[in-house]
């Protein structure tokens, strides 16, 4: 076979039957060491290609990674072939051969000088962080948590099935968790698809002194490419049934045995796997097929594993040397070869149908991982998401704007029992997520109720049927009908689209002509910013006078709980852009209870019964008047304000609800907390934002975040997308909070270019 380039030559490795097995047991080695450099060539190719396709890795941009050997070589290979400079952060354990290979391929190698809090691994990650600041726009493959790491081994599993057919036991070393977990998952799916009913048993091999499987960390261990001082995100315990630990002496001795007995010159991770394979060969039932993954060659270890002088200097002979594993309870500290069953709860997938591009969007993926869930993003265009390359989220491209696109994508990638829930942080995909959840029998709101929230005219009809207070509102589908609608609403009136988000298209109109002109403009829009078709419908509504509030609620154990009420401040007419929020809102007890009563009735009328709800209202002289009900979390950083004020982390609780987990709502005293958004007073291109550091130092300020860069276009805010950044602060009272926000904003100057 002739390949177009070296990258295509990765994989296609042979399987070899080992001699150390009785005739009635098949024990084979998958020689991943026959890749151009080693097994992680597969990961490097997958990660880099995926990053390029998703727009995360720009042409010619640098690649920066922490690696002790094989991943570094894979990145050097794939990065060099695809035109990217590669920076490798490593430690003094790197061998001369690997260093020579990396240098020959043009890599920049950065060697840390000493361990930090979590051994060599944390020292390397700290150096990597400084390099990322030095090289903005560089891509960090994140081999320990990038979902593309385990996904890269689907091809390995396919090769095993093609070469061997049925497999009973899979054995592999564990470092980042990607190779064994990824191969095991794909292999189980492939065997099931082939009609094999017998379960696959997966045996992991770790190093004594590694924290991966409940052992205390011993940073001085000598083994390379196996074990870890940190728990990587790609280690999914649900895919591993049994774990073996070998100490340095046992691993190195087994590696020498592998060369002498089988003629395979390999590294210590392969040697450790070989030792476990020999044990299984002698203990499994006749007819069993056992496969071991051999990751890398032995040339990197000529002056360690294969060097008697090194053995003597390292004191390896002083370590225990067992010929059989000691069977222990999981969690028992071990010093030599031992094995234990791995207690595991399957890591379920939490599926996001698209996401916010800012705010909670990327944060939600991290929170999902914190809950023990594996986030999956279904998207039709990954490149729209800044930061997606560091979100540790599996990306599946599909047509999210089609009715059956998300469900078809999930069926192609996961078994039904692998998915815990379906959700979204994007207003535009609430209906799609609800429909997907319903089709899979997962927790969620009725799609009809979510649709009624998205289609504001439907909201108005349901509230009217329930006799609840709301603005006078008329739905129009032709500009010619606007005068009659204005007559019903009165002037000034609000003209807005029936389904959009972030105050887009909402305008206060002071004349019939202006209302008619704006309605015609909105009716001419056929698709929104997510390329979704929009209904040809506009609402002409009464302008409701009174302070505006945001009411956050969430269902827990089937009951609706009021989390809190936020005071909202919006821009002066004619637009309605949220510029400041304060939580909790300063309200009298009677006002609070009246608002709660109306909101509860409104949510019941709409038919929502799951997860978070965000209701907007104005408090008029006659009482609360409902403006909008949304089947989602609030925007405008309100969930973060509630968390910082001492309330629940609503984002985490919403994810828990989506995954069918119990919602937790701690109660306690709240500290007034608020956000003020930074906007421009004129249109142009941003030259600089002066005074940001000074604002960060202002009394009471907790955070200042800027969302725009020099050169970006800015303008006075007409919707939420025009906001440049924000300041978050807290105080002993709402009045003090406002003073802190005013002071911080006063220190920030938006400067525009003269171009």
From TrEMBL:
Stored CDD domains: CBS_like
Domain ATP-grasp: 460-659
BP terms from Gene Ontology: alpha-amino acid metabolic process
Gene3D superfamilies with a match to the protein in the record: 3.40.50.1100, 3.40.50.20, ATP-grasp fold, B domain
Cofactor field: pyridoxal 5'-phosphate
Domain of life: Bacteria
GO MF annotation list: ATP binding; metal ion binding
Residue stretches in coiled coil: none
Keywords: ATP-binding, Nucleotide-binding, Pyridoxal phosphate
Protein name in UniProt: Pyridoxal-5'-phosphate-dependent protein
């Amino acid at each position: 076979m002739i390949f177009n380039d070296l990258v295509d030559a990765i994989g296609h490795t042979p399987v070899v039957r080992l001699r150390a097995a009785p005739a009635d047991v098949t024990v084979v080695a998958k020689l991943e060491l026959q890749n151009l450099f080693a097994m992680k060539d597969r990961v490097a190719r997958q990660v880099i290609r995926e990053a390029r396709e998703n727009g995360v890795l720009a042409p010619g941009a640098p690649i920066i990674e922490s690696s002790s050997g094989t991943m570094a070589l894979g990145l050097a290979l794939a990065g060099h072939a695809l035109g990217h400079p590669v920076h490798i952060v490593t430690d003094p354990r790197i061998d001369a051969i690997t260093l020579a290979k990396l240098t020959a391929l043009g890599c920049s190698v950065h060697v840390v000088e000493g361990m930090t809090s979590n051994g060599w691994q944390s020292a390397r990650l700290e150096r990597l962080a400084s390099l990322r600041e030095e090289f903005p726009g560089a891509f960090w493959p994140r081999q320990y948590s990038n979902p593309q790491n385990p996904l890269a081994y689907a091809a390995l599993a396919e090769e095993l099935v093609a070469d061997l057919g049925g497999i009973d036991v899979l054995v592999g070393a564990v470092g980042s968790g990607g190779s064994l977990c990824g191969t095991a998952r794909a292999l189980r799916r492939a065997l099931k698809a082939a009609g094999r009913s017998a379960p696959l048993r997966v045996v992991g091999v770790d190093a004594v002194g590694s924290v991966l499987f409940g052992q205390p960390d011993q940073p001085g261990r000598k083994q390379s490419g196996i074990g870890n001082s940190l728990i990587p995100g790609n280690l999914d315990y649900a895919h591993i049934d049994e774990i073996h630990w070998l100490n340095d002496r046992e691993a190195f001795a087994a590696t020498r045995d592998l060369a002498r007995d089988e003629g395979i010159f390999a590294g210590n991770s392969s040697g450790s796997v070989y030792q476990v394979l020999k044990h299984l060969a002698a203990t499994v039932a006749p007819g069993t097929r056992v496969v071991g993954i051999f990751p890398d060659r032995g040339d990197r270890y000529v002056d360690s594993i294969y060097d008697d002088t090194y053995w003597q200097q390292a004191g390896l002979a002083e370590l225990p040397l067992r010929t059989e594993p000691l069977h222990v309870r999981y969690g028992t500290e071990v010093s030599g070869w031992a094995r234990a069953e791995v207690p595991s709860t399957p890591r379920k997938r939490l599926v996001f149908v698209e996401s916010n591009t800012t705010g909670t969007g990327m944060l939600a993926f991290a929170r999902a991982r914190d809950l023990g869930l594996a986030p999956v993003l279904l998207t039709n265009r990954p490149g729209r998401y800044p930061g997606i390359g560091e979100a540790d989220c599996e990306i599946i491209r599909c047509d999210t704007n089609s009715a059956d696109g998300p469900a078809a994508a999930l069926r192609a990638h996961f078994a039904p029992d692998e998915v815990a829930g379906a959700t979204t942080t994007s207003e535009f995909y609430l209906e799609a997520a609800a429909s997907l959840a319903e089709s899979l029998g997962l927790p969620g709101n009725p799609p009809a109720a979510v649709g009624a929230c998205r289609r504001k005219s439907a909201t108005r009809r349901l509230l009217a049927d329930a006799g609840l207070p709301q603005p006078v509102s008329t739905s129009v589908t032709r500009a010619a009908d606007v005068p009659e609608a204005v007559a019903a609403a009165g002037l000034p009136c609000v003209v807005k689209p029936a389904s959009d988000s972030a105050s887009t298209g909402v305008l206060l109109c002071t004349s019939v002509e202006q209302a008619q002109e704006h309605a015609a403009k909105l009716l001419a829009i056929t698709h929104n910013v997510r390329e979704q078709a929009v209904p040809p419908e506009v609402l002409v509504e009464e302008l409701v006078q009174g302070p505006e509030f945001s009411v956050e609620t969430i269902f827990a154990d089937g009951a609706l709980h009021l989390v809190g009420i936020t005071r909202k401040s919006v821009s002066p007419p004619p637009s309605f852009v949220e510029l400041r929020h304060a939580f909790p809102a300063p309200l009298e007890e009677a006002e609070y209870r009246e608002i709660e009563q109306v909101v509860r009735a409104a949510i019941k009328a709409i038919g929502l019964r799951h997860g978070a709800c965000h209701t907007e209202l104005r408090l008029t002289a006659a009482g609360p008047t409902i403006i909008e009900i949304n089947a989602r979390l609030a925007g405008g950083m309100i969930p973060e304000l509630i968390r910082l004020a001492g309330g629940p982390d609503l984002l985490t609780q919403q994810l828990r609800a989506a995954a069918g987990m119990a919602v937790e709502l701690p109660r306690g005293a709240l500290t007034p907390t608020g956000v003020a958004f930074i906007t421009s007073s004129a249109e142009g291109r941003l030259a600089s934002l002066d005074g940001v550091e000074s604002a960060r130092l202002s009394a009471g300020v907790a955070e200042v975040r800027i969302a725009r860069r020099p050169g970006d276009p800015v303008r006075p805010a007409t919707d939420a997308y025009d906001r440049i950044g924000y300041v978050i602060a807290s105080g002993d009272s709402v009045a003090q909070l406002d003073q802190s926000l005013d002071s911080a904003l006063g220190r920030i100057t938006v400067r525009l270019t003269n171009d």
